[in-house]
Design goal:
mainly alpha, 2 strands, globular, EF-hand domain-containing protein
Length: about 120
C-alpha cells in the first residue's frame, strides 16, 4: 500500500514561524560595505599579482556565459583577493546580481560586468 500524503492546514507556514517574504540575500552585509573601496582593493591586488580575473571564474562557468551563482562568485573573488572579508564578497555578489525576467536561475551573477 502506498503511503498517503499528509495534508497541512492553511496557514501552517505561519504556525511554524516561517516568513512569507524573505529579505534580499545578505541585505545587512551589503549596507555596511563601501563597494568603491572593495573594488579599489581588488584592482590593486590584480595589478600587483598580475591575476587574470576571468581565469578565476573559469571553473564555475563551463559554457563561458559570463555568469555564475552567488556562492561561486564569492569563491572566485576570494581567489583574486584571499584577504577579502566574506561580507565584502557577498556585497559584491549582490551588486553584480542580475535581475529581470530573462535571467536564468541559478547563474545570475554577471562577473564580466564592467560598470560598478
Amino acid at each position: 500500500m502506498a503511503p498517503s500524503f499528509v495534508q497541512h492546514p492553511a496557514g501552517s507556514r505561519e504556525a511554524w514561524g516561517a516568513a512569507l517574504t524573505y529579505p534580499p540575500r545578505h541585505a545587512a552585509a551589503s549596507a555596511d560595505v563601501d563597494l568603491k573601496e572593495v573594488l579599489n582593493e581588488m584592482q590593486s591586488e590584480v595589478y600587483h599579482r598580475g591575476v587574470r580575473v576571468k581565469d578565476c571564474f573559469a571553473d564555475f562557468d563551463p559554457l563561458r556565459s559570463g555568469r555564475c551563482t552567488p556562492s561561486q562568485f564569492v569563491r572566485g573573488v576570494n581567489r583574486i583577493v584571499p584577504s577579502l572579508k566574506v561580507s565584502d564578497g557577498e556585497a559584491l555578489a549582490d551588486h553584480y546580481t542580475e535581475k529581470g525576467p530573462l535571467v536564468k536561475v541559478p547563474q545570475i551573477v554577471n562577473y564580466q560586468k564592467t560598470q560598478p
